[in-house]
Design a protein that fits this description.
By secondary structure, this protein is mainly beta. It is built from 1 helix and 15 strands. The chain has one helix at residues 2-20; strands at 49-52, 61-63, 71-73, 76-78, 85-87, 94-101, 116-120, 124-128, 163-170, 173-174, 180-182, 185-190, 193-200, 222-223, 231-239. A hairpin with a 2-residue loop joins strand 12 and strand 13. It is globular. The protein binds magnesium ion. Magnesium ion is lined by residues 115-117, 125, 127-128, 224, 226.
């Protein structure tokens, strides 16, 4: 009982002390958050860089050996066997929005079904795959960090439906001698559902062998041509 009374007295004293502090001391007025228009229905917010919004935006991209040659129509671009494409602009830490659609007609399985990929900084792949009732190795399905981290859940829609990735990426940091000081991290929402929760990457994506880091600065965003006619639309990025 004595203990309880002491505790109550202590709580009252602490409470009155906290109330005696000037609340303005803990108000932060150092940086006014810029006002932006958030856009509705996944439209880009007003401070985003539009990487692909309409057909002519293919000009923001290049192929690995020349101009980007993916087929465009209206607000979509389609993988067509002409190779990967990447942005002309380079990026570091970023928030990224990508919408993709795997083919309605299912003609293969596993890794051969709607395979493409969002390669952040050309090195770190968030896998694009038709993972609707299509089993493959878990760290290779849609929403995985390819060969590094399976998604927390499979949030895939049916083939032929538009899907979205919202990604927050922090680039790796390297010291002047090229050694890693901070790994890259990625958070991914697939169709609004968290599938990667601040995953720390083990290095660049590799198909065989184990990932490792090599020092680099800002790099382009790359979309993979894996031979399947995956479509993309509404691709935008915000530098962080
Ligand atoms: Mg892929």
């Amino acid at each position: 009982m004595k203990k309880l009374i002491l505790l109550l007295v202590a709580a009252c004293l602490f409470g009155s002390f906290a109330h005696s502090q000037d609340p303005a001391l803990t108000e932060d007025w150092t940086r006014k958050p810029p006002v932006i228009n958030p856009g509705c229905k996944q439209a880009p917010p007003s401070d985003a860089i539009i990487l692909f919004g309409k057909a002519k935006d293919i000009n923001n991209w290049i192929g690995t050996t020349g101009p980007a040659k993916w087929k465009t129509s209206c607000r979509k671009m389609t993988v067509n066997g002409t190779g990967d494409i990447m942005t002309k602009e380079k990026f570091g830490d970023c928030q990224l929005h990508v919408e993709f659609r795997t083919p309605l007609k299912v003609i293969s399985e596993g890794q051969g079904r709607g395979n493409s990929g969002v390669y952040i900084q050309t090195l770190y792949e968030v896998q694009v795959l038709d993972s609707y009732e299509n089993e493959t190795y878990y760290n290779g399905q849609a929403g995985s960090v390819y060969k590094q981290s399976p998604p927390l859940v499979n949030a895939s829609r049916k083939p032929g439906k538009w899907q979205a990735y919202n990604i927050v990426f922090h680039a790796p940091r390297f010291s002047s001698d090229g050694s890693l000081t901070n790994p890259a991290s990625v958070t991914v929402f697939h169709n609004g559902v968290l599938v990667q929760d601040h995953f720390e990457l083990k290095g660049g994506t590799v198909y065989a062998g184990y990932p490792k880091y090599e020092a680099h600065g800002d790099m382009p965003l790359l979309l993979q041509d894996h031979g399947n006619p995956v479509k993309y639309r509404n691709v935008w990025i915000r530098k962080l």
